[in-house]
Write a structure and sequence with these properties.
The chain is of the alpha+beta class. The protein contains 15 helices and 13 strands. Helix 6 crosses helix 8, helix 11 crosses helix 15 and helix 12 packs across helix 15. It comes from Saccharothrix mutabilis subsp. mutabilis.
């Protein structure tokens, strides 16, 4: 499964409506809510998001499994209840309901958290792209055949899959989500315009290969999967999503998805698969597979981003310019270049951590109030410093970009690229390094909606074709379960199969998952690095992470 960002879902509840915000003042403007009112709003949100019903005002966010992704969800839901904008960094820095309430009370009274503006009317008819979609469209114009913009999923299926229900279900999913019915065309001013087709017309193929001898079957299946994953998708004509069902034997199938990144990010995959299972169950039972439309559409998100959230970007720009004003030069990674076709310049190495390391990271981060991202950013900094001899590093970090509760269950491209600056100079004390990186993660999360293209322009970075500027290395921490578990009555189970990367966005991309133990996947460019070298670095990353975990518990501990 190719993802770029954590894919945890969350369903907005009726409790996310704005609460009263205090007694009206003499001017007629509602007064800010008081401490007790804020605690009453914060506590149930903590309980809901952390799935911990018996929390108290002193319960710690990190002790109950909180992370940077859940902080975003808490901030959005608390903000919706109070009718005020709540930065996610506030949750990370004030990790109990009582501490967060005290912080928010001070912010509200000081004017630091403005009210949430009303949704813009007529957003459904507004067909502007999001800033992320604009970026992907421009890159597509430079290289329409690039493969790293295909979000792919492969599922090995045991049981029986009904082809008619399969087709009807995916058609219903595409009909539900306007992003999957979108096309992107060049307007008269040479900018991109979004066209949303009224009818769902996805590319769905069903192929029965069970009758062939095994060698022929495997060859045909491989050819079909390769064709699905390597055939470029045209943005102007669509469709932008492909779904395939391959019957390989009695009670053995393969499901393949390929969706263009301009309408789908990693988070969206959870929603896609959950909606498919819902629609499939309806169709299998002889009912209509039609799914109710989401409360808001992707166009509403674009309107929010362009007309509401953009008002925060000038302040973010000042903070970002300050953080990266004297940023270091490109990271001098040691390379061993060879010629590789551009559209095959991607591969990955996966290693599993020793038993117990995931639990040790969890214990350390909850004990000392850090996110998993903070630990892994520190470990990556230590590794890169060893490799390059540089102690001031810039690392790209994909961020969810779904700052509002209403956006959690939408399919679309919300993900953004943020930058983290990792400074290791002047100390080898793990606690000091973690504190530095915690501050960096707080800033990263708080500025997560600032468009990456604007950041490139702000910092005056040089663009070079389709390569990502400003950072050669990325880090993604995925703390979620594999999405979508078929119900027993559907008649099948599935298991995710990770297809190898065919093209890499970064020179090195580190992806950490704790779905089943701690797993590290390093995606790399074979044109620059040998597989054995990357495998060695992956192992050294786990060693660095162990040192960080040990060092945080030992005041004399060193990360290097």
């Amino acid at each position: 499964m190719t993802t770029d960002t954590p894919t945890t879902t969350g369903t907005p509840t009726t409790t996310d409506t704005p609460a009263t915000t205090g007694t009206p003042a003499t001017t007629g403007t509602p007064a800010p809510p008081g401490r007790a009112e804020i605690v009453a709003a914060v506590l149930p949100v903590f309980a809901e998001v952390l799935d911990a019903p018996d929390l108290t005002p002193d319960s710690d966010f990190f002790v109950h499994g909180g992370n940077s992704l859940l902080a975003i969800r808490v901030a959005g839901r608390v903000g919706r209840r109070l009718g005020r904008q709540v930065p996610p960094a506030g949750v990370l820095k004030h990790p109990t309901p009582d501490l967060l309430a005290a912080h928010l009370e001070e912010e509200f009274r000081g004017g630091g958290a403005p009210p949430i503006p009303a949704p813009r009317a007529g957003a459904e008819a507004d067909r502007r792209p999001s800033t992320a979609q604009e970026r992907v469209w421009l890159l597509h114009q430079l290289d329409p055949d690039r493969l790293d913009h295909l979000v792919t999923v492969a599922l090995d299926v045991a049981g029986t899959v009904d082809p008619a229900a399969f087709t009807a279900a995916w058609t219903a999913v595409v009909r539900r989500h306007e992003a999957l019915r979108s096309r992107f065309v060049k307007a008269d001013d040479d900018r991109v315009a979004v066209v949303v087709d009224a009818e769902a017309a996805p590319e769905i193929s069903v192929l029965d290969l069970a009758r062939f001898p095994a060698p022929v079957r495997d060859r045909l299946a491989g050819e079909r999967v390769r064709l699905l994953r390597t055939t470029p998708i045209r943005l102007d004509t669509g469709p932008l999503a492909r779904f395939a069902l391959l019957r390989l034997a009695d009670r053995r199938y393969r499901i393949e998805l390929a969706v263009h990144h301009i309408v789908c990010d990693g988070w969206s995959l959870d929603t896609l698969l959950a909606d498919f299972l819902d629609a499939y169950g309806r169709a299998l039972a002889g009912r209509s597979p039609a799914l109710p439309p989401p409360a808001v559409g992707f166009a509403d998100y674009v309107a929010w981003e362009r007309d509401v959230e953009s008002s925060r970007w000038p302040d973010m720009a000042v903070r970002l310019a300050r953080r990266f004003a004297d940023r270091p030069a490109d990271l001098p990674l040691p390379v061993d270049p060879v010629d590789v076709p551009a559209h095959e310049d991607g591969d990955d190495v996966t290693v599993h951590a020793p038993p117990g390391l995931a639990a040790a990271v969890e214990r350390a981060r909850t004990s000392f109030g850090h996110t998993a991202l903070t630990f892994h950013l520190t470990a990556l900094g230590v590794l890169l410093a060893r490799i390059t001899g540089v102690d001031d590093l810039v690392v790209a970090v994909p961020v969810a970009g779904r700052a509002q509760t209403e956006h959690e269950d939408l399919v679309g491209l919300f993900v953004n690229t943020a930058l983290a600056r990792v400074r290791l100079g002047g100390t080898s004390d793990v606690r000091v390094l973690l504190e530095r990186n915690r501050d960096e993660v707080d800033e990263l999360v708080d500025c997560q909606t600032f468009p990456f293209d604007r950041l490139v322009d702000l910092l005056g970075a040089r663009r070079a074709g389709t390569r990502v500027p400003l950072a050669r290395v990325s880090l993604a921490v995925q703390n979620f379960d594999d999405p979508g578990t078929p119900a027993p009555e559907l008649g099948f189970t599935w298991q995710f199969r990770d297809p190898p990367e065919r093209q890499s966005k970064f020179d090195l991309a580190f992806t950490v998952s704790d779905t089943d133990g701690l797993r590290l996947t390093v995606t790399y460019r074979p044109s620059l690095f040998r597989r054995a070298t990357v495998a060695a670095w992956a192992g050294q990353y786990l060693v660095a992470l162990e040192h960080v975990v040990r060092g945080v518990a030992d005041p004399e501990g060193s990360a290097r």
